[in-house]
Amino acid sequence: MKTGVIRIFNFSFSLAFFCLTFALLSSFLSCVSFSNTQSTYVPPDFFGITPERSPLEKVDFEFIDDLNAVWIRELLRWTRVERGEGNWNFEHYDNFLEKAEAEGKKVIFTLGFDNPYMYDETSVPRAFTEREIPYFQNYVETVVRRYGTRVVYEIWNEPNVHFWHGTSQQFYATSKAAAERIREVNSEAIILAGSTFRIPKRFIEGMFISGAMENVDGFSAHPYAFTPKATIRQHNKLMRIFKKFGHDKPVWVTEVGYFTGPRPFFSTKRHPEYIVKTLSSLAARSNEIQNIVWYEMLHHFNKGDKKGRLNPLHHMGLLYENRENVSGADAFALTANNLADTVYHSNLPIREGIGKNITSLFFRKDDGNNILILWKNGSGKKNLHLAVPYINNLNLHDIHNRNISVIPSELKLTIRKEPVFITWKGGGTPMLFDLKRNSTIVCLGDSLTTGHGADIPGVDSFRKSYPALLQNKIKLRLVNAGADGNTASQGLARLENDVLSKNPHIVLIELGANDLLQRIPLAETENNLRNIINRLQNGTRKIFLVKFYTEAVARDMLESMDIPDYDAQSDLIKQYDEMYNSLARNYNIELIDDIWTGIWRKHMSDNIHPNAKGYELMADLLFTKLKPYLEANGFLK
């Protein structure tokens, strides 16, 4: 929404408020979709800004660089370069372009509007007829001959509202003639047409039907709305029009932004939220969008000033006039710096039990940086679990000030409407799942899991088993899937009915003791445990592998098996140690390597099973190992 480009085109407050009221009402009449079915590259120059009214001094470029804004857009006003027929002066725009190029910026020049000298009467604005179009073509040609391919050319600004004063058909003819003249003068020039305020379906269809979209390289759009959700609706609406006409050229979002005042109608409070949602959602559609140019860089006043504060169009910047940051500047810089030069992956994070009310966008850079942005659509909150295997810690960014907190790679997240912005370095496949839908722990094991001997030697006692005792401390439902005498092979045979059918979030595997006692070859035991783990792993399930012995326990068991030689015992214990450690390491699961401290030979019901006190101590040992994970995810009572 260019303002102040020439005096007669200034918005009044009432007109601006009317337009936005219309936008708000329209947004409620459309359906919304944040889905995108493709993975797509977000180029390094995806983001830009409009530095309207800025002299582009060093401090301005420092701010633009901080935002990672590569594109800048400027209205090349006809009346400013041709002040009377044939009286050309490009000094202002020459300086503008030289400064921009020196700072590595890319420039879009918007061509418009009319010029008094071509009318019999000097009053403007006026509608273009066939008589005026050649004058406009001459202006366009002169600009293109001067700047060539150094800039991108955008024909007009928001012709579907009051920046154009003729009929739609007259604009189509003007835009088509301008594009033809540019193409004649420079076949390599990049030409944009459209530049519409919002997405007026009938107007845009007329552009295609009239041939005004011929000779152009892209459609420029300003998908303004009151909310990011409604902005994306606008973009999706444009894609449906493109599909109707078989148009496959990109969209250039040459304006988008939000009012932050005046109060009580608008506020800066949600500005960071809106910026992150808008930039990330449009970046996820970079297969359809060439770039995003934010409107605008400068507020029209300083913080605390009252001058001009009643006009909402003066509240769209990221900087006050004295170059103090407006709320939202940090959010823009955080998002643009992280998302540029990434690949958006629509199939990540892995989502299990996550409804459409949660938006999750995942981007990855070639250098191994990963970005995950999450928010809840609508009011309220949602508790979810996030896990990123093989990664130690994640960075949680505050979108209001760019502060960073280090968080574990597996944790419970409370998702609200304000985006959660997370980054990390390295690989890892992020997984997101609903805590309430996977609220079960299954303990798969042998007689140690059934509580054998807790009350009466030789008899199972499920109510005094370690799973039952753990249940007293944990919110999740805990299922005891123990079976007396089970080997790893028998545990594998029961896996479908006793474990997978419960769709558990957490599984404890306590198997192997009977394999040792029955002298089952270690390779066979390892293969069965490997198969169990393979079938359990689904990208979101947490698995703990429980080692059934300590060195003292293993030596006593081997003595009972008539293997008294110390070195032979040591060799076999080492082989079992290597098996458990290898399984835990290769499958990135946690190994619980001691469940016997304080129990063996002290609180026993027979040679290999604890008594009731022993099972209490065993449950305490297991709880100590489980507690960090359970606590981080809100599973403790």
Description:
There is one protein chain. The chain is of the alpha/beta class and 637 residues long. The protein has three domains: 7-343, Glycosidases (TIM Barrel), CATH 3.20.20; 350-434, Golgi alpha-mannosidase II (Immunoglobulin-like); 439-632, 3-Layer(aba) Sandwich (Rossmann fold). 34% of the residues lie in helices and 20% in strands. The chain contains 18 helices and 24 strands. The strands form four sheets. The chain has an eight-stranded parallel beta barrel, surrounded by four helices. Strand 4 (106-112), helix 5 and strand 5 (151-155) form a beta-alpha-beta unit. Helix 6 (168-185) crosses helix 7 and helix 9 (271-283) runs parallel beside helix 10 (329-339). The relative contact order is 0.08.
Q: How far is the N terminus from the C terminus?
A: 54 Å
CATH architecture heading of the largest domain: Alpha-Beta Barrel
What is the number of helical segments per DSSP (H or I, 4+ residues)? 18
CATH topology assignment of the largest domain? TIM Barrel
Percent helix range: 25-40%
Task: Estimate the strand proportion.
Answer: 15-25%
Low-confidence stretches: 1-36
Mean pLDDT: 90
Alpha-beta classification: alpha/beta
